[in-house]
Amino acid sequence: GQNAAEDYRLATMHVSPARSLEVVPNATVGAEVRGVDLARAGAAEIDAIKQAWYRHDVLVFRGQRLSDDDLLAFSRHFGALDPPPNQGAGRKSPPGYPDVYVVSNVRDASGEPIGALGDGEAAWHTDMSYAPLPPDASMLYSLEIPGAGGDTCFAGMRAAFAALPGALAARVAKLDIKHDGTYDSGGTLRKGLAATDDPRSSPGTPHPVVIEHPESGARALYLGRRRNAYVMGLPLEESERLLDELWSYVESSVYRHRWALGDLVLWDNRTTMHRRDAFDPAARRVMHRTQIKGSGAPQRAAR
Ligand code: SIN
Predict the structure, then answer these.
(1) Is the CB of 137 within 6 Å of ligand 1?
(2) What is the C-alpha radius of gyration for the chain, rounded to an integer number of angstroms?
């Protein structure tokens, strides 16, 4: 009766907002988070999102309506912002938003690209792993999308590590890969750098092949990108062979994201790689990306 209804009202009044948040795991890596408006997420929701993120590595939030300020505010919950990478051509950020990175094929009135990566395929990569302190996380928010193409795929690198035969895992446990900084994932030379195909002398940073996530303790294969990668200390041919072997496990667990407007995808740069399909050059695709500064250099897995 009346009392039961009133009891119910009182009991639910102080329920944390995170109670309405639902985490639906994908069949492969990643999960979709439902029931949260990222422009208004409170502390309890942010905490629930972080726990889900440490567990699933890639989180998809559908149907968001975020201004650049909302995107930045949500991003800051995960750490300090990292400025966009050096890219080949065009502007990187919307005016007044230096920490927002535009990924787009659209050109402005003067014919300059408004963002990075054009309409071509972007090969598998981890963001900015050529740097000593790569970003912990990146997120991508869709503002304009083509009718077809331009899907973004995520590879779970814990699963890739778990798929390695024991002898291979043991062999690479103490090795480092140099992550090349010459080209972006679309194959474009970064500004101010010289073209090179010698991975031994190209600019970049070595990181352990197998890393351990500082929060979850998960072990992951850390490959960065294939082009100009080099296993430190090995003759070039042996390095190439070993890299090809390691790369054959990359697609062990892949989630394909078909974009809808208002999707935000958050990924862990330490435990995932991503790639993007090409799309119709006549179509428009506009995405805004933020990155979270690395909390530490990638750590070699102890076990
Ligand atoms: C990226 O590699 O960060 C961009 C991916 C995409 O355009 O979907």
Answers:
(1) no
(2) 21
This prediction's pTM: 0.91
The mean pLDDT of 10-15, rounded to a whole number, is 48
Q: Is the CB of 274 under 6 A from ligand 1?
A: yes
What are the beta bridge partners of residue 155? 254, 273
The Å distance, Cα 177 to ligand 1 centre, comes to: 23
CA of 269 to the centre of ligand 1 (A): 12
Distances (CA, A) of 191 to 182, 195, 211, 235: 9, 10, 29, 29
At 89, the pLDDT band (50, 70, 90 cuts) reads low
Contact 101, 113 (CB under 8 A): no
Q: Which helix (H) or strand (E) holds 200?
A: none
| Cβ proximity of 157 and 249 under 8 Å | no
What is the C-alpha separation between 230 and 176, in angstroms, rounded? 8
Which of 144, 287, 291 best tests ligand 1's pocket when mutated (most atoms within 8 Å of CB)? 287
Q: What is the pLDDT of residue 18?
A: 64
Any ligand 1 atom below 6 A from CB of 288: no
User: What is the H or E stretch that residue 76 is in?
Assistant: helix 68-76
Closest atom of ligand 1 to 152 CA is: 8
Distance CA 25, CA 53 (A): 11
Look at residue 10 and tell me whether its pLDDT is greater than 80: no
Q: Is 138 within 8 Å of 127 (Cβ atoms)?
A: yes
